[in-house]
């Protein structure tokens, strides 16, 4: 298939439809409006349903209903709207429903700004809603990756029966890059015999629910969920590394920030500082294995936040290596020179 | 007057007495001689020969205690 | 003799947890009977609220989803959009529908979502122990209006049926009650009309059922029926507020 130049938001929407998503419920919020707008145009053409909900809260609950009814369904939003969805995401996780949630991150806290950010790392990976739960979080760095990860998200969501989030720093939504739409690796999926589709008088009613009033039942449920999460941690963590074997300093970054970090690593190498990059592609499960047995002297996380992923990096190296932070927020984009200066300072060679 | 008969699944009864308000011939009473498994005096009918099988009692019952039969 | 009244197949055998005399039991039974009589029980999907009837998913003998507080109409929208040929209903109390869920019910009605909402209005919050509801009457005491609802401080109760009937997407809106056997039968007829309108593909339908809460009103169940008649019916008049007959919207 020939590549086509597409805006990130639209590519993600098209990817969902290509993956068999027939139901989209969303609400306008900058900078992801191209997603619901694309869905509004294209869903009717494939016999799907686009519905603009009255709020992000309503949208995530429509997702809950549709997912519980057995459908492949998606919603999208940006940071403040994703915050609104946290209750619904917790319910979807608790009821073990498959769904895909796309977050094109913008600056916060509160209303924040409309420029790109990565400040929803905690909200995405710590579970912004109540209770013990996790969901897979994919962090694409290119539009192609955004397409691939969105398509795979539907497979993975169905396979594990869980919500799956795809988080793009706002640039992913707004950039244009050439993409192609290839089907993801198919997983062996079970028929959704648990879905609420009507009993036809042939079976006991199915109940989609996250309420367990008996304490032991709720504990058993949480233990079962935890086993699922352990399997996912074992199997689904994903990352990319770049020139880390001989690196003295390793930059850790995700999303488009990782592309900037790669440029900075190259600039550092030109100066004689051996730098490499580890790029998490899943934020949860965090790729702890990428950080085993590193030979470097220090790590430097680069984030468009005040420092959130850095905590996972420190945990991953078990606090045995110094981990530093550099970043910009508010929509200010980190530049290679800033990263290079910080790395140089850490390595002790200020010129 | 049609003849009717009502059956009370007495262990379902919560003693709310709504059925006693609905009976047009006023024969539904709470059986003070009995306590059911829930600890309530269950509803009952002592003068079944007066029952007209209107099912008003069953219509008012929130706990599906009552089954009603009627002569056709 | 022939059986003229027995428990409907529309409900499971699970004994409900509701208080003695709580009208939820009656209303559940009416919904179950209607779905059974319309022959749609196997094609029905219900959405339970948060409130006393949070466990409704144990009592209705059809596929059920438990929604977050107030979100049942959005959840039902998701289900109905996926399965437009099924009968989808929400069953909600006054806190769930008229407080936290007000946006969801208004917009489901405005969109003309082809779902049926059973709205149980007992002018108080039951499950959480008797707090004031958006439908609590002026002067009525609740645990968060211990001196009686003061309109000057917290305004006036909301008449949901009247409000929703102004929306073009709402095709059948009726307020009924269950304080007498005759009214119970009328309530059932309204519920049947509401579901039939959904089956005909007409639009959003709702039946508001004035109900009692003996426990939190502090009244014997029989006294509670009287309180409903004396206090609630004058403020929440019974009757039909919208009936767009037969036109598929």
TrEMBL record, chain B:
<keyword id="KW-0479">Metal-binding</keyword>
<feature type="domain" description="4Fe-4S ferredoxin-type">
    <location>
        <begin position="4"/>
        <end position="33"/>
    </location>
</feature>
<dbReference type="InterPro" id="IPR017900">
    <property type="entry name" value="4Fe4S_Fe_S_CS"/>
</dbReference>
<keyword id="KW-0408">Iron</keyword>
<dbReference type="GO" id="GO:0046872">
    <property type="term" value="F:metal ion binding"/>
</dbReference>
<feature type="domain" description="4Fe-4S ferredoxin-type">
    <location>
        <begin position="42"/>
        <end position="71"/>
    </location>
</feature>
<dbReference type="InterPro" id="IPR017896">
    <property type="entry name" value="4Fe4S_Fe-S-bd"/>
</dbReference>
<keyword id="KW-0411">Iron-sulfur</keyword>
<dbReference type="Pfam" id="PF13237">
    <property type="entry name" value="Fer4_10"/>
</dbReference>
<protein>
    <submittedName>
        <fullName>2-oxoglutarate ferredoxin oxidoreductase subunit delta</fullName>
    </submittedName>
</protein>
<dbReference type="GO" id="GO:0051536">
    <property type="term" value="F:iron-sulfur cluster binding"/>
</dbReference>
From TrEMBL, chain C:
<feature type="domain" description="Thiamine pyrophosphate enzyme TPP-binding">
    <location>
        <begin position="57"/>
        <end position="209"/>
    </location>
</feature>
<dbReference type="InterPro" id="IPR029061">
    <property type="entry name" value="THDP-binding"/>
</dbReference>
<dbReference type="InterPro" id="IPR011766">
    <property type="entry name" value="TPP_enzyme_TPP-bd"/>
</dbReference>
<protein>
    <submittedName>
        <fullName>2-oxoglutarate ferredoxin oxidoreductase subunit beta</fullName>
    </submittedName>
</protein>
<dbReference type="GO" id="GO:0045333">
    <property type="term" value="P:cellular respiration"/>
</dbReference>
<keyword id="KW-0560">Oxidoreductase</keyword>
<dbReference type="InterPro" id="IPR051457">
    <property type="entry name" value="2-oxoacid:Fd_oxidoreductase"/>
</dbReference>
<dbReference type="Pfam" id="PF02775">
    <property type="entry name" value="TPP_enzyme_C"/>
</dbReference>
<dbReference type="GO" id="GO:0030976">
    <property type="term" value="F:thiamine pyrophosphate binding"/>
</dbReference>
<dbReference type="GO" id="GO:0016625">
    <property type="term" value="F:oxidoreductase activity, acting on the aldehyde or oxo group of donors, iron-sulfur protein as acceptor"/>
</dbReference>
């Amino acid at each position: 298939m020939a590549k086509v130049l597409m805006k990130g938001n639209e590519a993600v929407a098209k990817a969902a439809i290509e993956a068999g998503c027939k139901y989209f419920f969303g609400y306008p919020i900058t900078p992801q409006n191209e997603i619901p707008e694309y869905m509004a145009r294209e869903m009717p053409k494939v016999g799907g349903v686009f519905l603009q909900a009255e709020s992000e809260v309503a949208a995530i609950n429509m997702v809950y209903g549709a997912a519980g009814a057995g459908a492949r369904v998606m919603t999208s939003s940006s940071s403040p709207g994703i915050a609104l969805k946290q209750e619904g995401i917790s319910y979807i996780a608790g009821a073990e429903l498959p769904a895909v949630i796309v977050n094109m991150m913008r600056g916060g806290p509160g209303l924040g700004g409309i420029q790109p950010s990565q400040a929803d790392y905690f909200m995405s990976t710590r579970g912004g809603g109540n209770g013990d739960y996790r969901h897979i979080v994919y962090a694409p760095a290119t539009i192609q990756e955004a397409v691939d990860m969105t398509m795979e998200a539907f497979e993975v969501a169905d396979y594990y029966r869980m919500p799956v989030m795809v988080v793009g720093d706002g640039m992913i939504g707004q950039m244009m890059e050439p993409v192609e739409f290839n089907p993801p690796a198919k997983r062996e999926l079970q028929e959704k015999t648990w879905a609420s589709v009507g009993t036809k008088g042939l079976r006991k009613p199915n109940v989609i629910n996250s309420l367990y009033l008996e304490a032991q039942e709720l504990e058993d449920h949480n233990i079962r969920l935890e086993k699922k999460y352990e399997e996912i941690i074992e199997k689904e963590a994903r990352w990319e590394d770049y020139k880390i074997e001989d690196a003295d300093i390793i930059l850790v970054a995700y999303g488009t920030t990782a592309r900037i970090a790669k440029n900075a690593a190259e600039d550092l190498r030109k100066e004689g500082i051996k730098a490499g990059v580890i790029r998490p592609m899943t934020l949860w499960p965090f790729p702890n294995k990428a950080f085993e047995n590193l030979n470097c002297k220090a790590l430097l996380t680069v984030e468009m936040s005040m420092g959130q992923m850095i905590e996972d990096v420190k945990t991953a190296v078990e606090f045995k290596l110094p981990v530093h932070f550099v970043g910009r927020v508010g929509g200010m984009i980190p530049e290679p020179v800033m990263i290079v200066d910080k790395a140089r300072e850490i390595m002790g060679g200020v010129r | 007057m049609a003849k009717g008969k009502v059956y009370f699944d007495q262990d379902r009864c919560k003693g709310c007495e709504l059925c006693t308000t609905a009976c047009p011939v006023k024969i539904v009473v709470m059986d003070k001689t009995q306590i059911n498994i829930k600890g309530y005096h269950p509803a009952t009918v002592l003068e079944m020969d007066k029952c007209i099988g209107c099912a008003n009692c069953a219509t008012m019952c929130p706990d599906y205690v009552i089954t009603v039969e009627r002569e056709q | 003799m022939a059986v003229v009244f027995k428990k409907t197949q529309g409900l499971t055998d699970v004994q409900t947890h509701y208080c003695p005399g709580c009208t939820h039991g009656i209303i559940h039974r009416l919904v179950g009977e209607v779905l059974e009589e319309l022959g749609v029980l196997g094609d029905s999907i219900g959405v339970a609220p948060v409130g006393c009837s949070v466990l409704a998913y144990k009592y209705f003998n059809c596929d059920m989803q438990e929604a977050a507080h107030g979100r049942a109409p959005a959840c039902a929208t998701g289900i109905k959009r996926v399965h437009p040929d099924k009968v989808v209903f929400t069953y909600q109390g006054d806190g769930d529908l008229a407080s936290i869920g007000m946006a969801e019910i208004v917009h489901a009605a405005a969109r003309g979502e082809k779902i049926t909402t059973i709205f149980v209005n007992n002018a108080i919050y039951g499950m959480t122990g008797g707090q004031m509801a958006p439908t609590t009457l002026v002067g009525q005491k609740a645990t968060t209006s211990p001196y009686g609802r003061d309109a000057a401080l917290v305004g006036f109760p909301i008449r949901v049926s009247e409000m929703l009937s102004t929306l073009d997407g709402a095709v059948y809106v009726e307020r009924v009650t269950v304080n007498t056997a005759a009214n119970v039968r009328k309530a059932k007829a309204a519920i049947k009309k509401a579901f039939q309108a959904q089956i005909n593909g007409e639009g959003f339908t709702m039946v508001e059922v004035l109900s009692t809460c003996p426990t939190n009103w502090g009244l014997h169940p029989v006294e509670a029926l009287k309180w409903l008649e004396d206090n609630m019916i004058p403020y929440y008049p019974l009757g039909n507020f919208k009936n767009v007959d037969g036109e598929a919207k």
